[in-house]
């Protein structure tokens, strides 16, 4: 996959870019350029919620309060999620998440040694089992946290693709019982591992 603005395709922050015509879509006259620019990130959040089957009985954890995490928060609410907890390393982003409707926000570190302590905070903030976790960051720590925080039988969906390779503790997670579902990645191709 290639994305404008992500290495190795840098430099798309410009007034005009050349793009293959078969990948371009004309916006209707009633859709502004700003609204049109939000179609792709919105589609990521909606696709994630569809794939994870978010509904009125689904408690959701979101790792990362960046643009995709915030859109996934809004999509989760639109799909009926009764409780959404979002975590991030940036207090400003967490403040935005709270204003957009997150039930709880949790400031976490970048240190993987803090996972166990942070999982307890996340689970306490949810107040009941976490049914679905969306990792909107894509680092070893965020995926490890999501896998550990999600209840047995829950779903963990990788949306963020920060790393090309990831190391996560699958054996301890799978030994918890009840089975878990991993969906990797949500953005384009999805593979379920059972």
Briefly say what this structure is.
The chain has 194 residues and is α/β, with parallel strands linked by helices. The protein is built from 7 helices and 7 strands, in the order H-H-E-H-E-H-E-H-E-H-E-H-E-E.
Explain what you see:
The protein has helices at 33-37, 39-52, 67-78, 91-99, 115-126, 140-149, 170-174; strands at residues 59-63, 83-88, 104-107, 132-135, 155-158, 181-184, 191-193. Helices cover 35% and strands 15% of the residues. The longest helix is centred in the first third of the chain and has 14 residues, at 39-52. Helix 2 (39-52) packs across helix 3 (67-78) and helix 5 (115-126) packs across helix 6 (140-149).
Number of helices: 7
- Give the CA-based shape: globular
Radius of gyration from the alpha-carbon trace, in angstroms: 17 Å
Which strand order does the major sheet show? 3-2-1-4-5-6-7
Explain the layout of strands and helices.
Layout: H1 33-37, H2 39-52, E1 59-63, H3 67-78, E2 83-88, H4 91-99, E3 104-107, H5 115-126, E4 132-135, H6 140-149, E5 155-158, H7 170-174, E6 181-184, E7 191-193
Helix pairs in contact: 2-3, 5-6
């Amino acid at each position: 996959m290639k994305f404008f603005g992500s290495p190795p395709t840098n430099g798309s922050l410009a007034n005009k870019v050349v793009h293959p015509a078969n990948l371009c879509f004309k916006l209707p006259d009633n859709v502004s350029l700003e609204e049109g620019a939000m179609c792709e990130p919105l589609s990521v959040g909606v696709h994630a919620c569809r794939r994870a089957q978010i509904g009125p009985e689904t408690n959701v954890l979101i790792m990362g309060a960046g643009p995709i995490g915030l859109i996934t928060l809004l999509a989760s609410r639109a799909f009926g999620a009764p409780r959404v907890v979002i975590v991030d390393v940036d207090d400003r982003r967490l403040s935005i998440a709270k204003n957009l409707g997150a039930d709880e926000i949790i400031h976490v570190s970048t240190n993987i040694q803090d996972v166990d302590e942070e999982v307890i905070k996340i689970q306490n903030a949810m107040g009941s089992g976490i049914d679905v976790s969306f990792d909107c960051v894509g680092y070893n720590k965020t995926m490890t946290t999501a896998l550990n925080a999600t209840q047995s039988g829950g779903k963990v969906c990788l949306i963020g693709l920060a790393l090309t390779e990831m190391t996560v503790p699958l054996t301890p997670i799978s030994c918890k019982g009840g089975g878990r579902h991993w969906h990797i990645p949500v953005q384009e191709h999805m593979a379920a591992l059972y």
